[in-house]
Amino acid sequence: MSYLKNVKVEGKRLLMEAALKLAVNTRSLDAFSLRELARNAGLNPNTFYRHFKDFDELGLAIISEVMDQIRQPLRDLRREAAESAVPEGSLSISWQENPRLNFVRSLQVNNATVELFFKFVESNPEAFIVGVRELHGSSPVLRKALRALMKDFAHDMAEDIEVLGLLPKLDSASLLSVSEAISREMFQLSMNYIEEPERRDEICQQAGASIVNLTMGSAVLAGHVELLADALR
Amino acid sequence: MSYLKNVKVEGKRLLMEAALKLAVNTRSLDAFSLRELARNAGLNPNTFYRHFKDFDELGLAIISEVMDQIRQPLRDLRREAAESAVPEGSLSISWQENPRLNFVRSLQVNNATVELFFKFVESNPEAFIVGVRELHGSSPVLRKALRALMKDFAHDMAEDIEVLGLLPKLDSASLLSVSEAISREMFQLSMNYIEEPERRDEICQQAGASIVNLTMGSAVLAGHVELLADALR
DNA sequence: CTTCATTGTATACAATCGTATACCTTAAGA
DNA sequence: TCTTAAGGTATACGATTGTATACAATGAAG
User: What does the alpha-carbon distance between residue A188 and residue A170 come to, in Å, rounded to a whole number?
Assistant: First the structure.
């Protein structure tokens, strides 16, 4: 919930908290005024300048703090999903040896991850709203920072997929590319998930389907058709 | 280029044009003031109220006009790509009869479409910037409108895929779901395409890969593995 | 104990904001 | 021909904005 424990100076923290809250409600980091922000933080307008040069600097600070709190949990969640689905000792069995087992396991991990991911989104909406919003928002500085961040997420994911053996062998470029596509899809869908509560099941399914499609498609293109054919036989 | 030919009243058109331009530069539809808008349109501030109740109404008007000008061209472009890739008379040959031919053709159409799409984006950046921006922007009204619009695009795409025989038989739910995912990916990547000119080739490839992955993955999941295996043999 | 940087406040000001009221012009309908 | 609605302007108002300048409290370093 509170992403800003690291921020020691109280005024700074109050401002960042207020900004995050305002961003979630008005839903843009620069849609509110400096004075409005100060008012919400219970501080004098000028205090802002003690900590930030401008709104970009505030935005970067928030993003950086939030991501510190989110990145690792997301990885943990993926591993958690993986472990919950692995029949004991089967980790070592390669796709070549037992396509079917690995395929089924991959689907399980996939579904579990998606479910956990959206639960996580649900309990941390502010972080996702601000992130996705500003990814295409009005500040070039924030856009750039968030694009870099998406890269990091994708990189984490690629690494995990490899370590957890969730896909047949893929060259690392393709793997990263697929991971990036999955990241984009998941973050995008997280907005729908937040905003359309009545469609949450559907969105969950949609996300799962996209991931399966992307991963299986990439497996096919990497020359693993026969492998998949075996898995599905 | 000019999306607003339909708007007859001059003041209204001037306001919409100014808003579109401002949105592209400041990159948010409500990041500027009513007076700033009027100034850019060369009109009295009050003229705004003659045509719009508030900024949402302006936004909706712009979106609606822009999309009228964009939706059909996008479809044409897809058909154009399809026709350019079809060996004469081969349209009638089903995936079952000749998997390989259809697979190759599908890839060709795919690549051509992606290329044409990004060319289109390049020559209509305003439309895409505003669209993607406001899809996750600060106005719930615009968000909702743009989500509906994305649905329409996806629906068009699904219809075209079916008519043009770009995929092996798929139940219509899956087809729509895949089309939606493709739409999201394409619109998302269109932003990167605009903002990172030095990576355009890479982005183009990325888009192509995602589409192939999504479509082929869905084919696999729909039980067409053997078909694809044949195509790739 | 003094110094001084840090964090926050108080006051002030010109600029800009949204909008209310009133008025002008034009073209269409009665 | 007279009326009336629509599109556009002029002026004016109080509210809010970003920020400059000056000042107060605190705590660490010397």
Answer: 25
Query: Mutation test of the interface with chain A: which of B210, B212, B230, choosing the one with the most A Cβ atoms within 10 A?
Result: B210
Contact B168/B218 with Cβ under 8 angstroms?
no
Of A5 and B177, the one with more pLDDT: B177
- Per the domain annotation, does A160 fall within a domain? yes
A193, A142, A112, A131: which is closest to A3 by C-alpha?
A: A131
In chain A, the number of structural domains is: 1
pLDDT of residue A118: 97
Is B229's Cβ below 8 Å from some Cβ in A?
yes
Mean pLDDT throughout A190-216? 97
Let me know if residue B30 belongs to a domain: no
Percentages helix, strand, coil for chain A, rounded to the nearest 5? 80, 0, 20
Contact B29, B134 (CB under 8 A): yes
Q: Please indicate whether, in this complex, the C-beta atoms of A181 and B185 are within 8 angstroms of each other.
A: yes
Residue A188 and residue B184: Cβ atoms within 8 Å?
yes
Give residues 180 to 209 of B whose Cβ lies within 8 Å of A: 180-181, 184-185, 188-189, 191-192, 195, 206, 209
Q: Which SS3 state, helix, strand or coil, does residue B171 take?
A: coil
Rounded CA-CA distance A205/B24 in Å is 35
* B94-122 pLDDT, tens digit each: 888 888 888 988 899 899 999 999 999 99
In a domain, A109, yes or no: yes
Structural domain boundaries, residue B224:
67-232
User: Which residues from chain B sit within 8 angstroms of residue A215, using beta carbons?
Assistant: 213, 217
Alpha helices (H) along A42-167: 47-51, 55-85, 99-123, 125-135, 140-163
Determine, yes or no, domain membership for B6: no
CB contact under 8 A, A220 and B232: yes
Matching residue, tokens 């089924």: A104
Whether B28 and chain A come into contact, CB under 8 Å, resolves to yes
Model pTM above 0.90: yes
Tens-place pLDDT, residues B200-211: 999 999 999 999
Which one of B33, B111, B136, B192 would you mutate to disrupt binding with A, by most A Cβ within 10 Å of its Cβ?
B136
Q: Which pLDDT does position A30 carry in this prediction?
A: 67
Q: What is the CATH number of the domain that holds B222?
A: 1.10.357.10
